[in-house]
Amino acid sequence: MKIVDPILAGDLDAYVDDQLDVSRRIEVEAYLSEHPESAAQVMADLRIRGELRLALANGAMAGRHETREAARRLSQGLSAGRYVAAFQRVAAIAALVTVGWFANAYLGAFTATEVIASVPPPPFVEEALRAHSTTLLRESMPSQHEVVNYDPADIRSATAIVLPDLPESWKVVDVQVFPSAFGPSVELVVTPDKGERLSLFAVRPGSFNVQHVLKAETQGLSAAYWQIGDVAYALVSEKQAAKDLTETARRLSRTLY
């Protein structure tokens, strides 16, 4: 049995800064998959790191000198792992100021969401959309009965997929296991409100990541997707019924910590 050195705060900082070798990254990822609170902190650090890189990259440096210097000092502080909690709060402010200036100058006011929309979603989102379309097809076939027996523990035991806690008011109307490139995936069809249907898709995509909720739209469908550790999730709805889809996905994601 291999003895793994304890994972320290410095290892988590080095993971965020991409300064670990492959073997140590695997050990850190294994640790994060078993410690949701640490995974959440790493996810927050990665988001701040990404915002800082966006603010400092490819011409965005043309903003105010004070903002640039603040972002540099905050970036160095995160790398050193000192006063992380305090720096995170200030880093978020500096990043928002810089990114807001960049978006206003180059993209026009209130168009920052176009940056997110221009990033291709990961492959598991396409699988979620395909599963949702398959569910719609099954609904139109009287011979295909919906499966309403929903046991999260049974699903976790069979697929190693942990599903978020659903609000008590939600009703599960169908549960299906689909094949995917990395093994089984799970789709729940739920009705949060009368006349509204959402698909909650979960899969192990074959890689470890901590990704906050993003949104993608295609082929008349909307998907809010995220990843925690080695399981990825997508909440899918028709565009016309996609109001507050991103916020609903955020609430679901918080139940996984």
Structure, explained:
The protein is an alpha+beta fold and 257 residues long. The chain has 2 domains: 108 residues, no CATH class; 135 residues, 2-Layer Sandwich (Phosphorylase Kinase, domain 1). The protein is built from 9 helices and 6 strands. Strands 1-2-3-6-5-4 form a 6-stranded antiparallel sheet, sandwiched between helices. Strand 1 and strand 2 form a beta hairpin. The longest helix is centred in the middle third of the chain and has 24 residues. It is globular, with a radius of gyration of 20 Å. The two termini are 29 Å apart.
Question: What's the topology here?
Answer:
Layout: H1 9-16, H2 22-34, H3 36-56, H4 65-80, H5 84-107, H6 113-117, H7 123-139, H8 152-159, E1 171-180, E2 183-191, E3 198-203, E4 209-218, E5 221-229, E6 231-238, H9 245-254
Helix pairs in contact: 1-3, 3-4, 3-5, 4-5
Describe the structure in brief.
The chain has 2 domains: 9-116, no CATH class; 120-254, MucB/RseB, C-terminal domain (Phosphorylase Kinase, domain 1, 2-Layer Sandwich), CATH 3.30.200.100.
Overall tally of domains: 2
Give the termini distance in whole angstroms. Answer: 29 Å
- The name of the CATH architecture of the largest domain is 2-Layer Sandwich
> In CATH, what is the homologous superfamily of the largest domain?
MucB/RseB, C-terminal domain
What level of helicity do the residues show?
A: 40-55%
What is the CATH first-level class name of the largest domain?
Answer: Alpha Beta
Tally the beta strands.
Answer: 6
Number of helices: 9
Task: Return residue spans where pLDDT drops below 50 for at least 5 consecutive residues.
Answer: 106-117
Taking Cα atoms only, what radius of gyration do you get, to the nearest Å? 20 Å
Output mean pLDDT. Answer: 75
Strand order of the largest sheet: 1-2-3-6-5-4
Q: What is the CATH topology of the largest domain?
A: Phosphorylase Kinase, domain 1
